[in-house]
Amino acid sequence: MFDYGIIPPAMFLGMVIFMLYGFPVAFSLAAVGLFFGVIGILTGHFSDLFLQALPLRFFGIISNDLLLAIPFFTFMGAILERCGLAEDLLEGTGKLFGAIPGGLAYAVILVGAVLGAITGTVAASVITMGVISLPIMLRYGYNPRLATGVIAASGTITQVIPPSLVLVVLADQLGRSVGDMYLGAIGPSILQVTIFTLYILVLSILNPKSMPPLPKEVRGELNWALVGKVLAGMLPSIVLIFLVLGTIFMGLATPTEAGALGVVGAMALAALHRRLTWPLIQEAMRSTMGITSMVVMILIGSTCFSLVFQGMDGSLWIEHMLSGIPGGPVGFLIFVNIFIFILAFFLDFFEIAFIVVPMLAPVASALGIDLIWFGVLLCVNMQTSFMHPPFGFALFYLRSIASRDVKTSDIYMGALPWVGMQLLLVAILIFWPESVTMWLDKGPQVDLNNVKIEVPGFGAGGGMSLPPLGTDGGNGAPGGFGLPPLGSDGGLPGQAPATGTPSMDLSQPPVIK
Known about the structure:
The chain is mainly alpha-helical. Helix content is 65%, strand content 2%. The chain has helices at residues 7-21, 25-43, 48-51, 54-62, 69-80, 85-97, 103-119, 122-139, 144-156, 165-174, 178-184, 186-206, 216-219, 224-249, 255-272, 278-311, 314-322, 328-343, 349-355, 357-366, 371-382, 393-401, 408-431, 434-437; strands spanning 453-456, 463-466, 511-512. It is globular and about 80 Å long. The relative contact order is 0.13. The chain crosses the membrane at residues 12-42, 54-80, 104-134, 146-170, 182-206, 226-252, 258-276, 288-309, 329-347, 354-376, 411-432.
């Protein structure tokens, strides 16, 4: 526990106490970091040279092009929340599935996934779908717990589906490509939507009265006109998804550039629905400014803390404690996900990503865990922070737009089955990492046993061919190049080559095959 001194555990405990007391997270982290930095300097456990790097760290945060994706995606989501796209999608898909039990629930899940792929923000999805679909579901006999639960859960899918803001932040903290994080999240996104849909299917069979179909006079006739209307509503979304995700996956744009394209597309959609007004833009800019400022301040505070914490060997202390967990990598992942799940009761995903993930990433890397898999796994886990008490923001959003007839207890109780399904997905990803890694481009595979190095003008026949990499080179060391031993006829530098051995022609570069 104290192998690396008492200061790293004291720093960690001080951070927890400050945050539990209710101080703003950004200022708490900065205060704890600077306070223990001064103590470390006075006691000789910490060098003031570390603190001289703080201005450079701050400048690095402000000048980080990757983090520019956050205001772009936030602004895009704020515009799409008010442009009328969700209304068209929900109306069409609701009528399309309305003839079967649970039809509206299927529509909410599907539209939630589509909105997640074009907005990247939970608030926009939950509020938009809650305002539109909750009154209709309650009016036609849906169980209040089911109705509120499916709306909140379908909104939190946004956390996992690219272009999720959480994935951008995690990519930055883990030092990985945002494009790879987005590719890795494709499998879990599909699995999450599938699990939610299967739950509605099973529930509609066991208890169809809790989710009755819409009356025929409301849903209308199921014909090609209705299908065409749904497809017409989907087309702008598909175009916007290509602008944002397609350009990233094809290598045509960086995440920041794709975010800018998404903003242009969102404004075009708002203009198409005749809702692009100056008050809408002002409100979207105000929301974007607030979220971006919060993220930057938390990142600056966490930088102060992590700089001092690492200077006190705190990262080695964390690695020493966690690397000895029974079960190897799987045991570590189970422990970390339980820890993150508990933290999510009190911290939001930005705070977890900036404070906890930098401490865990070196341990995961040391255990040989793929950091893309690790990041996507934590992202799936952190979506539960929106769904469980006492700080489930998706539940707060839903409570703010639900009528007084909907009890707060129904909102909270209705969320529990969906939290369980999110945790089920966490378990699946732990024991099936290929659901994440199979989507990644691993590059060309090279068999080292077939690699040969030829040096022109050295050896018999005018050149020397070294044995393949990974084989026994003749000197008893597997994986060596098999260079001739000292004193042999190899003609090492400083020795005269043996009779009949041509000298090395340094004018010709080595050839690797």
